[in-house]
Design a protein that fits this description.
Number of helices: 6
Helix content: 25-40%
Largest sheet: 6 strands, mixed
Shape: globular
Low-confidence stretches: 1-10
Structural class: alpha/beta
Radius of gyration: 17 Å
Strand content: 15-25%
């Protein structure tokens, strides 16, 4: 389905709030070589839940309260974020919203995991996926994910709890579909952006 095939319902669609998960229980200061970082990503970061005792920001609680539909990626940190923000609510857990793989470049040296994350984003953006999901494939998935949110918004407000990098990848697709960011909370843990449909 192309972007042009999605048409808003006769009534104005509900807003879409796209949130980043809370702080995961993974040590991003761990010092590793590239193979160690790859193992850390697969075995520590990806399965990690949230650090206990975190508070949900008021704006995210408000978005959860008004949401008719709540999505989360399949990763535990995203699911726990959605359940914390919207306790007792039904959540649609969907793999279309998982974080991009972002494998590290095979380069010498030992660095903190958070530093490897920067290297990985840069090399992946330039096309080095090392057998994992490519940038092209992730871009296609981001377009599909954006359309999924837009379709759900025809029935009312939507909340997605997902991931910083992939959330950013959806932004140009949201704009292409006529959705404008009306509140930008940034890219830290628990932050969110709110989009509203504005026909051209």
């Amino acid at each position: 389905m192309s972007n042009s095939e999605i048409q808003p319902s006769p009534s104005k669609p509900g807003p879409i709030t796209i949130a980043r998960h809370g702080q995961p229980d993974a040590d991003r200061a761990a010092v590793l070589d590239w193979r160690g970082y790859e193992a850390w990503w697969d075995d520590v970061y990806q399965p990690a839940g949230l650090v206990e005792g975190q508070s949900v920001p008021a704006c995210l609680s408000a978005a959860a309260n008004e949401a008719r539909t709540i999505f989360a990626s399949t990763l535990r940190r995203a699911v726990e974020t959605a359940r914390t923000a919207a306790p007792g609510r039904d959540i649609i857990i969907d793999a279309r919203f998982v974080e991009a793989e972002l494998p590290p470049p095979a380069m010498p040296g030992r660095f903190m995991a958070k530093t490897w994350g920067v290297f990985a984003r840069c090399s992946w953006w330039l096309g080095f996926s090392r057998g994992r999901e490519s940038r092209k494939d992730a871009e296609e998935r981001a377009a599909l994910a954006a359309r999924t949110l837009v379709e759900a918004a025809q029935s009312g407000p939507v909340l997605l709890c997902a991931h910083g990098w992939f959330n950013r990848m959806m932004r140009p697709h949201m704009r292409a579909l006529g959705w404008h960011c009306v509140r930008d909370g940034g890219d830290n843990y628990w932050t969110s952006r709110r989009y509203e449909y504005r026909p051209r």
